[in-house]
Design a protein that fits this description.
Elements (H helix, E strand, L loop, with lengths): L4 E4 L3 H12 L4 E4 L6 H5 L2 H8 L1
Parallel strand pairs: 1-2
């Protein structure tokens, strides 16, 4: 299969970018090693800031 766009990483920016590209009609593939949302959502930035407060 041929894609117009391949996005590496399903973090906040990658997920949003892939969704926008799909809405605009591009054949898009999103590649994520773990869960969608990436490290920032699941164990990095957001949980760390919540814990610190």
């Amino acid at each position: 299969m041929v894609y117009d766009l391949i996005v590496l990483g399903g973090g906040p920016a990658g997920y949003h970018g892939a969704a926008e590209a799909g809405r605009k009609g591009l054949k898009t593939l999103l590649v994520e090693q773990g869960a969608l949302g990436g490290v920032c959502l699941h164990s990095g930035c957001i949980p760390s800031k919540t814990w610190l407060q």
